[in-house]
């Protein structure tokens, strides 16, 4: 095989992974649209969730059958490629499952989650303003608003209706983008088992863009630091092109949601100093970092300037549920619609600490013990430590300054980093001790039983978690996130229409009347 053919072959498989992930996502979403239930009836919700699970399991079994068929027809590389593509497809199905749940929850209404109220209303007004030639605040990440405005213009729908599409697409992209981002760092099976599983607590259909930026940012940062560390192995042309690509990537993620850059900045700088090739190739390292920084600044200059200009004067004074809980608790993110709370944080078995947190702590210890010098561990632990310190710094100043400064949102990054480290600890243990063998690499060295076992386990885990997440967002008239879909169902549309599942004289437009809407139970 010639060098050019080898280069082409090296790119074919990753491109196929991307295509397969999004094809699987598209097929599942299209099939989910055929579910016909009343989303305001609990029986309809359960039937809808079961319909989603039926589609998920059936498509998953098709993927396993394809791998088994490939094993009968071909050996070696052909089987490995089939397993690799099946893994990518499962990430697409996982994203489609949660997005399909949102489709079921919003069946019958054109509104997005929360209709034109709250944060959804702000995004709608900003998007409509952009279409009228107005500007939006420069201190808010603009990419999601511009995407909404562009989709509104393309579809010709009102912005409040176009936002529904943006929300569904955004939450659908969670799992496949997490998988593809972690493929920059890990092999397929581990990218699914670590990268996608770690995102499950972060999925937020209401504003998916914020946590989606975090999910992609961490693996891209790890890959960047790996490139810096190995700068001595590359020529200047490769480094400069890579730096430009990283700059564009970091810039777009910053424009999608910049909060993670604030929390991650101390750790990212520390990690960069630790992995920088001070002796091996300092000039190449400087060139890579300089180009990345310059391109990042060019891409994000307006928002970056607005963020820095408002840093000393902008105050977040939204004191909601999570602001009044123990600031050291991070094991679950309940947003500002916690639902039935009871004793919160929940009482743990060990000095108030629960078993889940203990598992994360063990994962952190094992990751540090087995991989202290690995770039993945250095980067993720550094971001975790920096976020942890900034969380308590801002929380400690709340009383004096009467400002929250979004500090509860650091829960998402802390939890994500710990989940990644726990998964990576398993990877390091398998690599170090060889148990279990063969590796979860889905490479040519992995036996067929291991492939099938991994695919089946991931289907069960991601299917169960996806159903639980979808169920939480089914319409409910209470203090949970299900209220967002309830608002979309009972809020009167601009043309006067109501959802077909709400009596015409029951839907309203005033926000303070939404909780008073009564939907009679369906006659059976």
What does this molecule look like?
The chain has 524 residues and is an all-alpha fold. The longest helix is centred in the N-terminal third of the chain and has 32 residues. The protein is globular, with a radius of gyration of 24 Å.
Main attributes of the structure:
524 residues, mainly alpha, 65% helix
Runs with pLDDT <50, length 5+?
437-445
Question: Care to count the β-strands?
Answer: 0
Tell me the series of helices and strands, N- to C-terminal.
Answer: HHHHHHHHHHHHHHHHHH
**Biggest β-sheet description:** none
Category from helices, strands and their pairing: mainly alpha
Average pLDDT across residues? 91
- Our measurement of the CA-to-CA distance between the termini, rounded to an integer number of angstroms, reads 68 Å
The percent of residues in helical segments reads 55-70%
Rg from C-alpha positions? Answer: 24 Å
Number of helices: 18
| Global shape | globular
Q: How much of the sequence is in beta strands?
A: under 5%
């Amino acid at each position: 095989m010639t060098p050019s053919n080898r280069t082409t072959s090296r790119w074919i498989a990753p491109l196929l992974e991307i295509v397969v992930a999004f094809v699987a996502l598209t097929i599942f979403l299209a099939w989910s649209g055929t579910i016909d239930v009343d989303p305001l009836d609990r029986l309809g919700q359960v039937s809808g969730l079961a319909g989603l699970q039926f589609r998920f399991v059936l498509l998953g079994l098709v993927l396993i059958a394809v791998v088994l068929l490939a094993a009968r027809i071909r050996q070696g590389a052909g089987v490995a490629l089939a397993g690799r593509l099946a893994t990518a497809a499962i990430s697409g199905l996982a994203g489609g499952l949660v997005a399909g749940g949102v489709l079921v929850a919003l069946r019958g209404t054109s509104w997005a989650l929360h209709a034109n109220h709250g944060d959804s209303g702000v995004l709608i007004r900003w998007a409509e303003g952009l279409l009228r030639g107005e500007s939006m605040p420069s201190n808010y990440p603009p990419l999601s608003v511009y995407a909404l405005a562009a989709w509104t213009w393309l579809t010709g729908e009102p912005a409040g209706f176009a936002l529904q599409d943006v929300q569904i697409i955004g939450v659908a992209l969670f799992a496949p983008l997490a998988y593809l981002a972690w493929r920059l760092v890990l092999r397929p099976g581990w990218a699914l088992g670590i990268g996608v599983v770690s995102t499950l607590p972060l999925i937020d259909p209401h504003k998916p863009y914020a946590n989606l930026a975090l999910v992609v940012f961490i693996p891209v940062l790890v890959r960047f630091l790996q490139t810096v560390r190995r700068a001595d192995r590359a020529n200047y042309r490769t480094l400069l092109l890579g730096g430009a690509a990283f700059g564009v990537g970091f810039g777009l993620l910053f424009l999608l949601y910049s909060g993670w850059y604030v929390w991650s900045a101390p750790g990212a700088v520390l990690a960069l100093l630790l992995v920088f090739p001070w002796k091996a190739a300092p000039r190449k390292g400087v060139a890579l970092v300089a180009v990345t920084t310059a391109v990042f600044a060019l891409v994000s200059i307006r928002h970056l300037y607005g963020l820095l200009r408002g840093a000393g004067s902008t105050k977040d004074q939204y004191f909601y549920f999570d602001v009044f809980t123990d600031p050291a608790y991070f094991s679950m993110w309940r947003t500002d619609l916690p639902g039935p709370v009871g004793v919160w944080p929940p009482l743990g078995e060990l000095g108030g600490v629960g078993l889940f947190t203990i598992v994360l702590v063990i994962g952190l210890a094992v990751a540090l013990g087995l991989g202290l010098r690995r770039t993945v561990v250095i980067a993720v632990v550094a971001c975790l430590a920096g976020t942890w310190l900034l969380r308590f710094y801002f929380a400690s100043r709340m009383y004096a300054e009467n400002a929250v400064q979004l500090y509860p949102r650091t829960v998402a990054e802390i939890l994500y980093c710990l989940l990644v480290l726990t998964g990576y600890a398993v990877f390091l243990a398998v690599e170090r001790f060889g148990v279990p063998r063969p590796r979860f690499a889905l490479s040519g060295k992995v036996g067929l039983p291991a492939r099938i076992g991994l695919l089946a386990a991931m289907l069960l885990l991601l299917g169960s978690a996806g159903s639980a997440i979808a169920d939480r967002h089914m319409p409910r008239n209470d203090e949970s996130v299900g209220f967002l879909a309830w608002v979309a169902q009972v809020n009167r549309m601009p043309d006067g229409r109501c959802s077909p599942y709400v009596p015409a004289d029951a839907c309203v437009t005033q926000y303070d009347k939404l909780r008073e809407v009564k939907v009679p139970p369906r006659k059976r």
